[in-house]
Write a structure and sequence with these properties.
This protein is mainly alpha-helical and 337 residues long. The chain is built from 13 helices and no strands. The longest helix is centred in the last third of the chain and has 40 residues. It is elongated. The N and C termini lie far apart (179 Å). The relative contact order is 0.05. This is Reverse transcriptase domain-containing protein. It comes from Tanacetum coccineum. Keywords: Nucleotidyltransferase, RNA-directed DNA polymerase, Transferase.
């Protein structure tokens, strides 16, 4: 006895056999042209041993220029090469980008965007480690000027350096014998060294004010008319800038103190050198001077009778001073008058 499922499967197979088979016509397409592949057997040994040349492309992709008679002058290239970036630790890539943009902004060509000029000339501004970095970039990986700036800054200004500079700004403190104007200039230099620090003007004023000495804070409050916090951020910055332009006599006093300390330190060094020279001379002299050996006392011994007295006191000679021994031990003491 057949089940319902078996009957259903049998009917499905019969329907599939009765359906007509439609065959679509085969359309022949022309082959897509591709690179000509030369068989290994058709190449010479010289060609097979030759180094490959694929993959040696520029990292920067220059867009097509439609201008006529476009040419970069040699003097401009020399100006760019005169201020190269080497990739050293003390170099700032942001400062190099700004300097490079100022130089290239002097060029104006019709139908030539300025970004194209910057892309063409930027590799000429690199030397040393920076040039090595650019040469190792993958071919056709830089399409725009923004791409180039992003890769360049991330390579030579990593996030760790940004964190270090931001912490240094936050811990700002006026140094010993540093004037107000010197402290302000140093603080602005720290801000310029990290253009993307993210500190607002309010934070900058607060950080600089808290880093000053108490005397400088009181002087700044006096310049603000009693309290710097009663001013707006822009007014506070103007007060600080105007105060930094005033040269106090204290700066000269501090400079004289520093110079006097330097002179004292130099004098102390000279004294120490002279003392060392004197000690050396004393040691040399002490080595050359020979201490005389102690003289043994001469015992009195009479050459006439052998008694323990001088020969001129000998009772046997009756103080006869004409007696003199030619040999033996005698006292060299002169006879009494």
């Amino acid at each position: 006895m057949r089940t319902r499922s078996q009957t259903r499967n049998r009917n499905r197979r019969q329907q599939q056999q009765t359906l007509p088979v439609v065959v679509e016509p085969c359309i022949l397409q022309e082959p897509i042209p591709g690179p000509t592949i030369v068989a290994m057997a058709d190449r010479t040994m010289e060609e097979l041993l030759r180094a490959p040349t694929e993959g040696y492309g520029e990292a920067i992709v220059l867009p097509e220029i439609n201008a006529d008679h476009f040419e970069i002058k040699t003097n401009l290239l020399q100006l760019v090469q005169a201020n190269p970036f080497h990739g050293l630790e003390n170099e700032n890539p942001h400062a190099h980008i700004n300097s490079f943009k100022r130089i290239t902004s002097t060029l104006r060509f019709r139908n030539v965007p300025n970004d194209v000029i910057k892309l063409m000339m930027f590799p000429y501004s690199l030397e040393g480690a920076a040039k090595t970095w650019y040469e190792k970039e993958p071919p056709n990986s830089i399409l725009t000027w923004d791409d180039l700036v992003t890769k360049f800054v991330n390579q030579f200004f990593p996030p760790s350096k940004t964190t270090h500079l931001k912490n240094k700004i936050s811990r700002f403190s006026q140094e010993f014998d540093e004037s107000f104007s010197e402290a302000w200039e140093r603080f602005k230099g720290m801000l310029r060294s990290c253009p993307h620090h993210g500190f607002s003007e309010l934070t900058q004023v607060d950080t600089f004010y808290n880093g000053l000495t108490e005397n400088e804070q009181d002087s700044l409050n006096s310049a603000a008319g009693g309290n710097l916090l009663s001013k707006t951020t822009r007014e506070a910055l103007n007060i600080i800038e105007n105060k930094s332009k005033v040269r106090y006599s204290r700066n000269k006093t501090n400079a004289s103190k520093v110079n006097s300390r330097e002179n004292v330190s130099k004098t102390d060094e000279r004294i120490d050198k002279l003392a060392d020279q004197l000690l050396t001379l004393v040691e040399i002299v002490s080595k050359k001077v020979v201490t005389p050996a102690p003289v043994k006392a001469v015992e009195e011994n009479c050459v006439t009778c052998g008694g323990a007295h001088a020969w001129y006191n000998c009772p046997a000679t009756d103080n006869n001073q004409n007696v003199c021994a030619t040999t033996g031990t005698y006292n060299q003491q002169a006879p009494p008058n």
